[in-house]
Amino acid sequence: MDVRLPLTTAGMCLALLLGACSPDDEKHGPGLEEKTAQFEQSLDAITDPKLKDAVTELGGSLLLLERARRRLDGQPAKTEYGEDALGALRHYPTPQALVDTFIDGLFVLRKDVGSDYLTDLQPVFPFNLNIPGGFLFPHGVQWQSVTLSDKRVIAWQTEWSETDPGIQLSPSSSTPDDLTLSYPFIEGLDIDRKSQPQPVSLLGEIEVIAPGRLHSFDLGKQDIGQTRTDGNLSVTLLKLEKNYAEVEFSNSLPLAPEVGGTPLNPMIVQARDATGQYLKRAGSINESPEQVAFYQEQLAHLQQQKAWSDVLEKQLNDSQSAFERQHPRRYNKVYFHGPVESLEVSVLDFSNVSVTRKPLDLPVRRLDPHTTAKAVQPLDLPVTVYDDQAADWLKGASLTEQQLKDSIRIRQSVEEPSAARIEFDHRKTFNDELLGEDFSPGDSPVTFFTQKRNGERDEPIELPPEAYQVDPLSGTITYDLNLFPETPAFAVGSMPLFLATVERQTFDAKSLPKGLDIRNNMLVVDLKRFAADQWRFFVKDGSGQYLKQILSVSHDAGAEGPAIFGVHYFYGRPTQVETYRRTDLATVQYGFEVKLDKAQVPGTAP
């Protein structure tokens, strides 16, 4: 939840605000629903359409900002750890080296969408664009055309046309970053996909803007109120509370002309707790109290007007420009999931930039998760990318019974009395990946109890078997309150959990056991010796760091036949292989006593 107020180019509206409000918002402070209702009523008095739009956008955005602030202020005090937002950049000597890796690691996969008339093309980048903050540098790809196997070139179009009778290349309707190649559909005529021309290469152009430099400031409570400076970059820590920080930064040099009008995220605020781990961000608000007060003044001024005019628009723009001149520093209030011990504030300097533009002519590759092909298809990209999450993920290989029990979180749902639920959930770990499918959960006893006047547990309730159902594999208990002769207050029982015993071994590339083979950037695995449900493989290169896996392919004997061998593709050259094998699978009984949430059963008094 990152909130930045628009002014003259607002994209939020009152309808969005009204649709997003919930009763929980009022728990964080009174008055939001009343303010919303009053604001909506005030709009009825505005007759000028353009003025009404401006008031709706600005007022709705201010209310949405307040709602976001209340939610962030009222979030539960639960520690959650996240990724290092600068992890990818730390592996490369310069920002430009990261840019080159980003571009040179791009390839295109052909995806089967189960239709003879549609084929999806998936651009695959070496870095995850969907994590909070995404790729650090401004970037964009303009697709131009796809070349087919019959030499035809199909131009890119921004949307699919129902009236175009030919083959079309347009954005995918299901996945925003993918492209769809659409073949013409003829009613009553069956088309053999193999007879259709297939995509061979995708053409386009990519542009990435890298900042001239990055500087990080390490801050703590002793820095509150102080301004730290490095050349043209300065950072001021305004406040550091238990789970949030308020920071301002400025760049005394103007932005480079190449980034004019480009949305930028030049400041990255990260926090660590006492363990030294990065805390997960809960969200941020990017408007300072002074900015909010200014927008409120602008709103009040708009609400006093009778009609929109060019003079009014100029007044608003002039006021905005004057405010920005008087307040050149950028503000950020960042919330975290957990107690903040120290801050790392990193500033990207876009006063000097390097712009990389490169034409793209990318072969379309077919690498399905399962194939009957006997030959290994190469996918050797000229980049090295590390997996910064692997080491933490692999801690799950030594998960203990107590750690598994401590990770359980119990949630309840009583909205549907006929299908009330108790869920035993836990954060997924590497151990879950090695559980396989050979579960023997055994008995999962549960008994429901009534409640005494003093709130303590009373007698057990006699129930028919169909009144409740225990699903140990999903960790849920579902019960039908309509079949209960008395209102239950407690559920007592035992839920089975599953814990794998994992054996870890490390092999040098030159002394791999039979059944494992390194070929360039691939690890080829004999699946008859290393069954897929029992084994996992991680690799390192000469630096001692884990390489990021691109994808894996299982080569099977046939549609119903067994898997013969698997191929794991990596960004880089493996020199060491770590094997993880499940040697045992234990059932751990998790005893519980749950105080049940109350539900309104039809036919009973509220």
From TrEMBL:
It comes from the Bacteria. This is Lipoprotein.
